[in-house]
Amino acid sequence: MKNYLKKLILIIIFIFPSSILGKEVLLQSTTSTKNSGFYSYILPIFKNQTGINVKVVAVGTGQAIRNAENCDADILIVHAKRDEEAFVANGNGIKRHNLMYNDFVILGPSDDPAEISDSKSAEQALNSIFKFEHNFISRGDNSGTHKKEKNLWENANIKISDYSGKWYKETGSGMGTTLNIAAELNSYTLSDRATWITFKNKKNLKILYEGDKNLFNQYGAILVNPEKCPHTNVEESKIFLNWLLSKNGQEAIQKYKVNGIQLFYPNAN
What is the 3-state secondary structure (H, E, C) of 179-247? Predict the structure, then answer.
């Protein structure tokens, strides 16, 4: 009798998995939110309130968007507004929403050999690194952070590709690996603040430039368009998005701190 019941339960779960287990929301995300511990903090709160499980795939923003274009996502949380708007304009997403923000910082050796700490702008800081030809470690992975960094070099009127493999070195990796290499080589780099705060292998690295309005780091959230991707989990992913944008979700974001430091600032529309 027991074996019969077990078989019956397995058959029911196989035929009706969503009704028995609940459908999982697939989130394609930038790495900075995951590496900072944000999802380990906020997803249990969401699940406790709704019973919905969210699976996170954390890659660079460029790759996350490509995955979502291939219908391998229910929802996106990334940080490259121009690309996010193109994603929606091309019919891949329903609508882009501001979710939260923080900023980018320029890191380097504590003795600051390129003398960037007194710079008046991020572009001036990069020009100083360029002038001294001191090592700069780039993610080089088409992530949101890499896109921001390329934009800053362009604003500084420096064709950075001309120096690739020389003093400008690209890791093709995530923020954690890039920070580790920058720490080992006593080099400059650009990081989102949340990853830097939670990064443990700081060694001789420190924040040398911050506060420029061009270092603003906005995160957006987008539901994948079910007309483009008919297998999208519309119901649960919409509940997740609405919760993130709600008073409850925004307050939860506001309260997330590491070592007493707030990592993200909610700003849903």
Answer: HHHHHHHCCEEEEEHHHHHHCCCCCCEEEEECCCHHHEEEEEEEEECCCCCCCCCHHHHHHHHHHHHCH
pTM recorded for the entire structure: 0.89
Closest by CA position to 238, among listed 96, 98, 74:
74
264 neighbors 198 (Cβ within 8 angstroms): no
Reduced to 3 states (helix: H, G, I; strand: E, B; else coil), residue 103 is strand
The answer to whether 103 and 262 have CB atoms below 8 angstroms apart is no
* φ, ψ for residue 50, nearest 5 deg: -125, -20
CB within 8 Å of 104: residues ≥ 6 apart? 145, 148, 190, 191, 192, 193, 215, 216, 217
Q: Which of 104, 106, 95, 100 lies closest to 41, judged by CA?
A: 100
Whole-angstrom distance, CA of residue 33 vs CA of residue 58: 8
**DSSP state, 163?**
G
CA distance 184 to 35: 20
pLDDT tens per residue, range 131-157: 999 999 999 999 999 999 999 999 999
| Residues comprising the chain, all counted | 269
